[in-house]
Structures are given as C-alpha cells and as structure tokens.
Design a protein that fits this description.
It contains eleven helices and nine strands. By secondary structure, it is of the alpha/beta class. α2 links the parallel β2 and β3. α1 crosses α7, α4 packs across α5 and α10 packs across α11.
Amino acid sequence: MKNVDFVIITGLSGAGKTQAMKALEDLHFFCIDNLPPALVRPLVELHGQSQAERQYAIAIDIRVREYFTDLRRSLEWLENSGHSYRLIFLDCTDNVLIKRFSETRRLHPLVKGQTKAESIAENITAERHLLAEAREMAHVIIDTTDLRPMDLRGRINEIYLGVPLQKSLMVDVFSFGYKYGAPIDADIVFDVRFIPNPFYVDELRPLTGEESAVSDYVMNFPITQLFLEQFTDLISSLLPNYAKEGKARLTIGIGCTGGQHRSVAIALELVKRLEALGINAGARHRELD
C-alpha cells in the first residue's frame, strides 16, 4: 500500500478549525470534516485502491465525542504503517472563545439539545479536559487568540509551504479582447489599447502576441516599457496586502481590442517579470483559448 500524508486538525470549538481547513483546501489537500478517528484506517485502505496522489486534511473535534478516544490508536496505526501525519491543535483563551460564541449565537457542541443549564465557560472547561490528551500529542499548537482568519491562513501556509502567504498567492494574468466583452472574473483590469496595434502591420496581422515578431513590435515602444515597469512595481508592492486579506489568487485582466496581439504579448511579459521577482504567476489567453 502506498504511503499517505495526513494533516489532522483538532482543538477547541471556536478556535478556527473551519478557517484552517479552508486554508488546507487551497493548498490542494483533500479535506474531510468531523471524521471519527476509527475511520482513518478504512480511508487509507480505500485510498490504496485508487491511483490518485492525495494529501488528506481531517478535522476531528469534540463533536465525535465517544469516538475521540480512538484518536491515539489511529495515529499509532498510521505511524506503524509507514504513513506520515502531523497533528495540529488550535487553542484559544477562554474569554475570546466566549466572545466568539456570544457573537455568533452558536451553541457549544457540548450543550445537549437546546438547554443552556451550563454556561459557555463551563462547556469550554469540560472540552479542555476532554481534549487534553490530543493537545499533548500535537506536533504544532497554534494559539488563535489574537489571530484573524487571514493570519491563521498565513500560519498554515508557513507550516506547509515554508513560505509567507504572499509567496504562495497565485497571480493569474489573462489577456482578452474588449470586442468580445469585458471580463467579469478579474480583480484588476488594464486596458492596453494605448499601445500601437500590430493589427495594422500586414505581416503581423495573422500572428498573435505569442510569436516573437509581434512581441518584439509591441515591446519596442517606450510607452510599453514604462507601463510594464510601473505595473510590475504596483502589483509586487500590493501582493502582501492582498495576501493579508486572505486571497489565494489575484486575477488580472489585460485587454486590447481583439485579444490577439497587444494584450497577449503584455500578459506574457508581465508574467515573466513577476516570476523574476519570485512571484507565483501564470498567463492564459481568453480569445486564443
């Protein structure tokens, strides 16, 4: 059976497990919420029947209650079977947890039915006791008391990618033609119709911006170089701020009239410059595709 990598997220209710799972999902983990620990082994065996290469992220919390005692046995089985795992425990101070439950008006998972005979503080204390062993086994403990959702996301990124969040943010640059409609899925749109159009050069008209003759023509104008230099500086300086707000992808549309020449060449050159700065970027061409 091939080895499987697991990330197991557990911790106090209200400490941020949902946000942590969203961050792992963006890192292409196969995420399963609230899986009883005893089902980890069947999951691994089921994975062995497929050809897919996956990393699994599993959220396990007090909602599984009586099954939680199986956690240690399941982790020992993973280790003895040669599968790797990392257990992350999310912690938070009581007063912040109480505030979060009060603001969202959610019942604590330990509340039975709709009764509130016990206070939230008492439920949190009971949960800490039940999760004490899981906390001791954790490889990483993250205190989310002073973390915003995007801060937790950044912490998860640093743990699993070894880079700050802005280094993993994907910049998606695509070319398009205004004559076919402006894009509705772009965060930033730039109109490059101020650059002389290769369409009016007979030998360039049948080509696209992917070909060197068109690219050389477009890049030869000083206004093109000025635009690329200033736009590259703008995007690279803004990326950390987009990352702090939790964006996993920044989509930039570069438009010209037909989406064949100028926008294609500019999109490709912009990606090249961003990649030279260590930014994760890729180009696509709406009209050519």
